[in-house]
Design goal:
The chain has about 325 residues and is α/β, with parallel strands linked by helices. Helices cover about 45% and strands about 10% of the residues. Bound molecules: iron/sulfur cluster and zinc ion (2 copies).
Amino acid sequence: MKCRKCGETAVINMRQHKLALCADHFGQWVPAQVEKSIHKYKMFTPEERVLVAASGGKDSLALWDILLRLGYHADGLYLGLGIDGGFDYSGESQRKCEAFVSKFESSNNPEVASPDSWTPTLHILSIPELYGASIPQAAQRVQRGRGKPCSVCGLIKRHEMNRIAHDLGYSALATGHNLDDEAAALFGNTMTWQVGYLARQGPVLPAQDGFARKIKPLCRLYEREMAAYCLVRGIDYIYEECPYSLGATSIAHKELLAELERRSPGARQNFYLSFLKAKEEGFLDDHQVPPARMHACERCGQPTTAPDLCAFCRLWVRVKSQE
Ligand code: SF4
Ligand SMILES: [Zn+2]
Ligand SMILES: [Zn+2]
């Protein structure tokens, strides 16, 4: 197969776009798509500083790379969760993030458009060091060994990412959710008609009451395109998923949508983009949840609807009481 732009051998064929590209042209096409999404959904401006939630996986490192190549001021945040899984999952993920950012530390990297010799920073924060328990340990104590640690993990990650974005003055928190992730989440929310979640789902969640703006610049790119981008760009990422993700419902939804996509190229993209269009046209306007009355948590100061402590602080009180 030949590249549509130059006739060289193509490295990827994107059937949903009827577009095959060589390594060079694909490496240029991806950032151009991300730039379009940033503008289309008014994610942030060139003057704003963005914090990328870097997990060491392909999506977040590709996202960080793309934002830097586009000339944006994007730093990274790695949250050490203390997950081992028999292969030091958290340690390995952190090393991938460190290796990624170290490429930019050697100055004069022509890939980074930084007129003031600015280089990106990786903020590293270890949950076990800061709070005295890893995610699995915290979950074990509050759930008494039942179920996966994912809800505890999600709560801690949301709180800490928001805290760092706010404390360090970033305008937006960028996550590496790709179109496959977003379509699977949409599918899950639609299966159970979670209209509240559907009303909030989208490429941008505006800042509100002390919560940082959240953006998903990769939301129009397929997961396989992000893997191909990492290959083309020589980005080394952690291949293994978190050991607790095995058997997750979202993975089953992804597989179903992948089967639909195989039979009908573009089905997954149409599903997600038509949803965004319907939302823009007001289809969920009657289901917008009115903003809850927030006040500052007595302990950490982050916004909460609870009368005294936020869910994050209550969690750690319970974890400590089980020590
Ligand atoms: S799979 Fe669960 S435990 Fe692992 S990172 Fe995701 S939310 Fe956390
Ligand atoms: Zn080409
Ligand atoms: Zn709190």
